[in-house]
Design brief:
The protein has 7 helices and 14 strands. The chain is of the alpha+beta class.
Length: 248
Amino acid sequence: MDIAAPFGYQDIVALQRNAKVRLPQAGDVPAFVRTLNAIPLSLAEFAPAMREYPIVFTSGDQGKTFTPVAVLGLTAGENLFLEGERWAARAYLPAYARRYPFCMAQVRVNDKVQDNRLICVEKSFVDDAGETLFDDAGKALPRWEGIQRLLTEFEADLERTREACAILADYALLEPFSMQATPKEGAGGAVQLTGMHRVAEAKLNELNPSQLKNMMRKGVLARAYLHLVSLENFARLLEKRAARGAAA
C-alpha cells in the first residue's frame, strides 16, 4: 500500500484510534505554510477568502487542470499574513492549513488508486505527550469529531472544486495574466508575479444559455465573480508589503 502525502506534508501515517496527537494551538500554522506565497483553496472558501486575498488559478500540467489558490505574498517565499510564526489574528486561515497535521490521503494498492481516502496524520505529531482522540471503546471524543468534520467537508469540497475548474477550462474561460508593480520608494523593488490565470470576464458574456445555467446550478458563476472581485486585493498586498518594509 502506497500513501500519497499532500503538498507540504513530510511523512504521514494512517491515524490509529489509540494514537495520541499533538494538536496545534489557535493561530499556529504548519512550518511549510510560512514560506508559501500562495495556498490552495476549495470552492466554499471563496467567500471568506476574497475579503483578504487575491484568488487566482494555477496549473501544474500546462493548462490541463487548474487549482484555485489564495495569493499570500508578491515574491517567492513571502507570506504577508504571518505575525511572527502565527497567522494574522483577523485574517481568514485557509482549510488547507487548518487541517494540519491531519489529511485525507490518496491510497494506491498494486498501482491502482483506491476510491476511498485514508485519514492520516503527520508522523512527527504522534506523541505520547499529545491528546487522546478516541475513548477506550474506540468512540470519537468531541475534539476529534470537529477535526473529522473539517477533513470530510474539505475533501468533499475539493471534489466540487475540481469539477468547477474543469467547467471553467472546458468553457475556455481562463486566461493567463501577470501582476507587475513598482512600489513606492522605501517599499522594496519592483515585483512581478506570473503563472496565474483568471476568468476572462468578457467571455462570461459570450456563454450560451445552457452554459450559464450549468454554471449557476453548479455554483461556479457566483464563485467566478467572487474571484474577479478578489483581484483588487493585489493592491492590499502591496500596502501590507510597504507597511512591513517601513516597520523593518
